[in-house]
Amino acid sequence: MTTPPVALTIAGSDSGGGAGIQADLKTFAAQRCFGASVITAVTAQNTKAVTDVHPIPPAAVASQLTAVLDDLSVAAVKTGMLGSAEVADEVAARARDGVLPHLVVDPVLISSTGYTLGVVAAIERLLPYAVVATPNVAEAATLLDRPVTTLAEMADAARDLAAGGARCVVVTGGDLRGGEQAVDALWLDGEVRFLRGPRVPTTHNHGSGCTFAAAIAARLAHGEQLVDAISQAKSYVARALAGATGWRIGGGIGPLDHFEWSPSVDSEGDNA
Ligand SMILES: Nc1ncnc2c1ncn2[C@@H]1O[C@H](COP(=O)(O)OP(=O)(O)O)[C@@H](O)[C@H]1O
Ligand SMILES: Cc1ncc(COP(=O)(O)OP(=O)(O)O)c(N)n1
Q: Residues in domain Pyridoxamine kinase/Phosphomethylpyrimidine kinase (predicted)?
């Protein structure tokens, strides 16, 4: 077998296994990448709540980065929960040095269970180096300090966030419930386009944003073109959501079927 590409996640640990580092490493493996990890925080978390957060000191984030980058040939990088501007500074310094290729920035600010995991100042430090940034509607609204609740507002938000330096911005619409479709607004090269897919009828979407960004990084690590990588990552998330509709893991918002273990499911999420 040929050597798989290495993808690196810089993110927080989710003890419940659904989001953060755990979702990223599962996604990398599912996409046939060898996953490396730099941990920025340890969260005590399950499908119902985040109950504790222990930030990793910036110097320890820096030494993890050095250990990975000194030895492994990293092909793409995804950032998730950074926790503080000081940690973001450590990551931005490596990005400035040009050693974080294909940088995908998931601007994690608040968990779906309502806990604050990140700060705007940290995201702003990394956006200039991102090839893609993937805020959800709530994160886009916080970063821009204005409502983002319609497709037109998502498109405008993607454009305005790209002014912060990211080459491409995808504002994800998973949390805009109600329609038949899950729609994301993608800004690239001065144009917006909407990515549409069937909406999987599920409330078990813990870690969908982490999974989406990690899948983009993995596909970029394999050399896929940017828009193809984003489209394929969106399809993968939909399949992973559909596969877990029958799962009962935890009593709250359950995780995704990263390895597509469930028998083939149709686009409505029903097992075939
Ligand atoms: N129910 C769903 N059906 C299909 N795709 C979804 C669904 N929910 C989210 N997605 C997709 O998952 C990706 C992550 O989006 P989102 O859920 O908005 O992220 P976050 O977890 O950060 O809120 C996007 O491509 C979005 O369109
Ligand atoms: C440690 C950690 N990192 C990120 C998140 C947020 O994950 P996300 O994919 O946005 O999923 P939800 O939590 O919004 O479902 C997290 N919860 N924990």
A: 14-256
Asked if 39 and 57 touch (Cβ cutoff 8 Å), the reply is no
pTM for this model (two decimals)? 0.97
Task: Tell me which of 34-43, 209-218, 255-264 is least confident.
Answer: 255-264
* Residues sharing a CB contact under 8 Å with residue 156, sequence separation 6 or more, in sequence order: none
Q: Domain map of the chain by residue range?
A: 6-243
**Ligand 1 pocket, mutate which of 237, 241, 256, 258 (most atoms under 8 A from CB):** 237
ipTM entry: 0.98
Residue in 24, 47, 112 to alter for ligand 2 test, most ligand atoms within 8 A of Cβ: 112
Residue 226 token pair:
């940017």
At the topology level of CATH, where does 6-243 sit? UDP-N-acetylmuramoyl-L-alanine:D-glutamate ligase (3.40.1190)
Q: How far is the CA of 207 from the centre of ligand 1 (A)?
A: 9
CA dihedral 260→28→20→140, nearest 10 degrees, is -90
- CA pair distance 47, 116, nearest whole angstrom: 16
